[in-house]
Specification:
The complex is a heterodimer.
Chain A lengths: L12 H14 L3 E7 L6 E9 L16 H20 L21 H9 L3 E3 L3 H9 L3 E3 L13 H7 L3 E7 L2 E7 L7 H11 L28 H7 L5 E3 L46 H6 L12 H6 L16 H14 L2 H12 L22 E2 L18 H14 L16 E2 L2 E4 L5 H21 L8 H36 L4 H7 L6 H17 L19 E7 L2 E9 L4 H11 L2 E11 L2 E10 L1 H12 L1
Helix pairs in contact in A: 1-6, 2-3, 3-5, 13-14
Chain B lengths: L5 E2 L2 E2 L3 E5 L4 E10 L7 E7 L5 E10 L4 E13 L4 E4 L11 E6 L3 E6 L4 E7 L11 E6 L6 E6 L3 E6 L4 E7 L5 E6 L4 E6 L3 E6 L2 E10 L7 E6 L6 E6 L5 E5 L8 E3 L6 E6 L6 E6 L3 E6 L11 E6 L4 E6 L6 E6 L2 E6 L1
The chains are: A alpha+beta, B mainly beta.
Chain lengths: 630, 342
């Protein structure tokens, strides 16, 4: 093995060979070296890699004969080249590439995985390599395809590409990652073995950056100093994210710090570094599958895979909230089949978009490839606002306003003023608007309820109102009040008038009132009667004359009308009814020497109406007159 | 030839333009492929003529050849400009070879769009008397419950129709003033905006109460349009009259908008959420521009910038982003309709 200086900044040439050797030795699928980026500080990126897995289509230049090792090396190179080609954003695969170059359809899924990994970057603490670097400890991940993406961000990719086991360990300022498509139970002796392959001399594994350590008792350990030391010192710290329920190796509960041989503890919801839970959450049913497999009762993946959703239109997925945990297999099936169905470009995009969350320059969103000539849209220039082409003179939102404001009125001039006029009855609901801001909700609602109660009471008091809505109730209350006021005014004025009349007319008619005393207290009647009587006696001598109507007071409840035709008197009389009033009237008439031959009377609401037809008996009148007034 | 179709398109690499004989306002993109050709998409265009006679034309868009075809018989008259057109969402292709189109004017009308003809299906009229009608400003077709359409009217009410039976499910007095737009959230929840400046959410299970989730800062400034994010039901967008801002609301935190997208240089006319992504929204306005925005989790200090922009020839009045064609956005300006590749 090479003895080259393990420079932390650059990837040594023979690292590839070392990776190749290592991964071939253990017959795993791939090896990747993640190195600290030279461009971005604090970030791990693809350093070098070696692919040892299944190959679908081998493309080689015929002339060159390569042995097995070299073939494999070449494959890795080809993959890298393909990646670079694709990442440069050219869509036409035929442009300027060597004939033996790979194109997307030549790759197996595992090769895809390897290729896509090239695009990954990890912050320190983020993802498997990041955490490995920060903790300085090897990490063994079984069932990578089932891991939570917080733990292993490429888990979905792993699932598709059937990478089941991934192991990371820090090395030389970076992280070496090994992966295989089989499930290999954790075995850290393997890790040690690999390390020995790499190292010919003990190297301290130091990290250049101050790494925030969360919860681990982590001093910078130098596990590689002595393989034996590693065993004893690493005891509490090694993490194995083991999420398979059936595995006998797993101790699912917590830390077992005091057992040097056992290096497993469950990773419970590692936070920090991993992509933040975004508040723009998806109700994405597919990801709840992981909850199935997770030993933790931790919640579903809350990552949003925006692009994934868009690129894989798997019919109408149910967007039910928390419902429909699909079968894992079914989900796998559909994913894989959807990947297979699309054409190859789409395959590529799909795979990439599944993983990348929009921060990667390749994918801004599967549709929004601004470097892609196909879009009509242009990217937004931060400082250069595109000038509008015309100066705006007219009304803003002119067409929209016309649609909303004037078009409805074009239809029919006769529009109802209120919904009630349109024939709506109680079938129309009028919801109470709840203002749910601040603390006003509860007292506001109480106030409204009080108002409603009062209105109901008002409705029951006020007659003649069939509608239940507030406006009608208030309207009819107003009407009713006005009506009542009017009546009261009339009554009062009527009463005054009668009082007035009574006072003014009392004196000259005293004598007549004597005859009317029988009538009791009904002054108005008396007034009438007395005036009537007076006239009667006067006219008694002129029986041939006609007598016009006695003027009756308007608007009062009493009136009397007398008309005369030759010898016949027609008297129409109204007065408030009381016990015996009819008898008194008849008596009065007889005193006046009127011979009644027809009397019609009826009472209505306390009022007595009389219609009397009578004849005058003359001789009696004279006598009566003389006796009374002489 | 009786089956004369015309091709009127301006082909460019990534957009298709159709020029209509009249100003276009109402526009709808079908959710199912055209019955004639499964690759084609039907688009309905409603004219805007200040006249009694207005027309609605159906054209077919072929994304492969980037062309649109008109069909002379796929057209019908409409009294006064239709205020909104919409195809039935999520129409199961097995149900028939025809498509259902709804139009709103003074009444809600349903039309069956067949291969070469359009048949009127029903006129949904809720007025008890023949004299009065309450013209509709907008409507929305519930995509979870496809027999349910909610309409908004200038008589301050929203009416929910069961179109299979042709009857009113319920009617609500939604606001104090004219209601300008309505949008469904779930099967029984809808929201509406009004001239009184409020966004209110209604639940058909509790008709006694509604919830105000936003009121325009200047009282009584009308809110003209509303869009509910079908991918993430927490979010809604609305635009105010004469405003160049798109207001994004979170229904969990009422009265405070989560974002105000203020990059238009003139007032905004139309907004639509992306049908396949919960984070993207498109807006178009009088500044002749259409923006696609990506809403971040955390906004920068200077506000949110759009992702990308398109400039049309004149003020853009209408915007549709169909779920059936998530790669294409349809815009309408003056008498043109354009399909833009996203």
């Amino acid at each position: 093995m090479g003895t080259g200086v393990q420079n932390q900044e650059s990837v040594p040439k023979n690292l590839k060979k070392q990776l190749a050797l290592a991964v071939r030795n253990i017959q795993w699928s791939y090896a990747i070296f993640w190195s600290i980026s030279t461009r971005q500080p604090g970030v791990l990126e693809w350093g070098d890699g070696y692919y040892n897995g299944d190959i679908k289509t081998r493309k080689t230049v015929q002339a060159v004969e390569l042995n097995a090792d070299q073939l494999d090396l070449q494959r890795s190179e080809q993959l890298k080249e393909l990646y670079e080609f694709l990442s440069s954003g050219q869509t036409s695969p035929q442009a300027r590439r060597p004939s033996a170059a790979l194109s997307p359809e030549d790759l197996t899924d595992t090769e895809w995985y390897y290729l896509v990994c090239m695009s990954f970057v990890f912050n320190i603490d983020q993802g498997l390599p990041g955490r490995t670097l920060s903790s300085g400890q090897p990490v063994w991940l079984c069932n990578a395809h089932c891991a939570e993406s917080k733990v292993f961000s490429r888990s979905l990719l792993a699932k598709v590409c059937a990478v089941l086991t991934v192991v990371c360990f820090p090395f030389s300022g970076g992280v070496i990652e090994l992966g295989v498509t089989d499930l290999v139970l954790e075995d850290f002796s393997l890790v040690l073995w690999i390390k020995t392959l790499f190292l010919d001399s003990p190297q301290p594994i130091v990290s250049n950056k101050p790494i925030p350590v969360s919860g681990n008792k982590n001093d910078l350990v130098c596990p590689s100093l002595d393989p034996l030391i590693i065993d004893t010192e690493l005891s509490p710290i090694l993490g194995c994210e083991h999420l398979e329920t059936a595995s006998p190796d797993v101790s699912p509960d917590g830390l077992e710090p005091n057992q040097p041989g056992e290096y497993s503890f469950l990773v419970q919801g590692i936070d920090g570094g991993a992509s933040q839970v975004q508040s723009w959450q998806f109700m994405d049913v597919e990801f709840s599958n992981y909850a199935h497999h997770s030993l933790n009762s931790s919640d579903c993946i809350s990552q949003t895979f925006v692009d994934h959703r868009s690129i894989i239109p798997l019919g109408q997925e149910e967007k039910d909230n928390g419902n429909g945990l699909q079968d894992v297999d079914e989900c796998n099936q559909t994913k894989l089949s959807s990947f297979g169905l699309q054409n190859d470009d789409l395959h590529f995009h799909a795979v990439l978009s599944v993983i990348l969350k929009g921060s990667h320059p390749l994918i801004l969103g599967p549709q929004f490839q601004n470097s892609n000539k196909e879009s009509s849209f242009f990217s937004w220039l931060k400082n250069g606002l595109v000038k509008p082409q015309k100066a705006r003179d007219g009304t803003p939102q002119k067409l929209l306003k016309m649609i909303l404001f004037s078009v409805p009125h074009m239809h029919d001039r006769r529009l109802p003023e209120s919904p009630e006029a349109n024939g709506f009855t109680d079938a129309v609901w009028r919801p109470e608007a709840d203002d749910i801001c601040g603390n006003h909700a509860l007292p506001e609602r109480k106030r409204r309820e009080k108002i409603n109660d009062r209105l109901m009471i008002l409705k029951s008091i006020v007659p003649a109102n069939s509608k239940a809505d507030k406006v009608s109730i208030l309207d009819s209350t107003i009407d009713y009040l006005q009506d009542l006021e009017r009546r009261v005014a009339e009554l009062e004025s009527c009463r005054e008038l009668t009082e007035l009349e009574t006072r003014t007319k009392r004196k000259p008619l005293d004598h007549v009132e004597r005859t009317s005393d029988n009538y009791g207290n009904n002054k108005t009647t008396n007034v009438k009667k007395s005036s009537f009587s007076k006239r009667k006696t006067r006219d008694a001598d002129e029986v041939d004359e006609e007598i016009d109507h006695v003027a009756s007071k308007d608007g009062s409840t009493d009136n009397i009308t007398v008309s005369m035709n030759k010898n016949d008197f027609l008297i129409v009389l109204k007065c408030p009814w009381r016990e015996g009033v009819l008898l008194e009237i008849m008596d009065a008439l007889s005193i006046l020497s009127l011979d009644c031959h027809s009397v019609q009377s009826f009472t209505n609401g306390g009022l007595l109406s009389l219609t009397i037809k009578s004849k005058v008996v003359i001789r009696n009148i004279r006598k009566h007159f003389k006796s009374n007034f002489c | 030839m009786e089956n004369s179709t015309q091709e009127s398109h301006l082909r460019s690499d990534n957009s298709v333009t159709y020029e209509s004989p009249y100003t276009v306002y109402a526009m709808a993109v079908s959710s199912t492929p055209s019955p004639t050709n499964l690759n084609h998409q039907s688009i309905a265009l409603g004219s805007f003529l200040e006249d009694y006679n207005n027309r609605v034309d159906i054209i077919a868009f072929d994304p492969d050849t980037l062309s649109v075809k008109t069909h002379p018989t796929l057209s019908f008259y409409h009294p006064y400009p239709p205020t909104k057109l919409m195809f039935q969402p999520n129409r199961k292709s097995s149900s028939s070879s025809s498509d259902l189109l709804a139009s709103s004017g003074e009444y809600l009308r349903l039309w069956e769009v067949r291969e070469s003809s359009i048949e009127p299906l029903s006129v949904l009229n809720n007025s008890k008397t023949s004299e009065f009608c309450a013209p509709l400003t907008s409507f929305d077709w519930n995509d979870v419950e496809p027999k349910r359409i909610g309409t908004s009217s200038i008589d301050t009410t929203c009416t929910i129709w069961d179109i299979e039976k042709g009857v009113v499910e319920t009617q609500l007095i939604a606001h104090d003033k004219e209601v300008y737009d309505i949008a469904w959230g779930e099967a029984r929840v809808f929201a509406s905006v009004s001239a009184d400046g409020s966004v209110r959410i209604f639940d058909l299970r509790d008709k006694e109460h509604s919830t105000i989730i936003y009121e325009s800062p200047q009282p009584d400034t009308p809110l003209l349009r509303l869009a509910w994010n079908k991918q993430d039901l927490k979010y809604m967008a609305t635009i105010q009259m004469d405003s160049n801002k798109v207001v994004i609301l979170d229904i969990r935190s009422p009265t405070m908008p989560v974002a105000e997208l203020e990059r238009h240089q003139a007032s905004v006319n139309a907004i639509t959420w992306a049908p396949q992504s919960s984070k993207h929204i498109c807006s178009a306005g009088d500044d002749t521009q259409a923006f696609i925005w990506e809403l971040p989790t955390v906004a920068g200090p200077n506000g949110i910038d759009p992702l990308c922009v398109y400039s049309a020839g004149s003020e853009i009045n209408q915007l549709q982003w169909s779920a059936a064609q998530p790669d294409w956005i349809a815009i309408a300006f003056s008498n043109k309709m354009q399909l833009l590749k996203v």
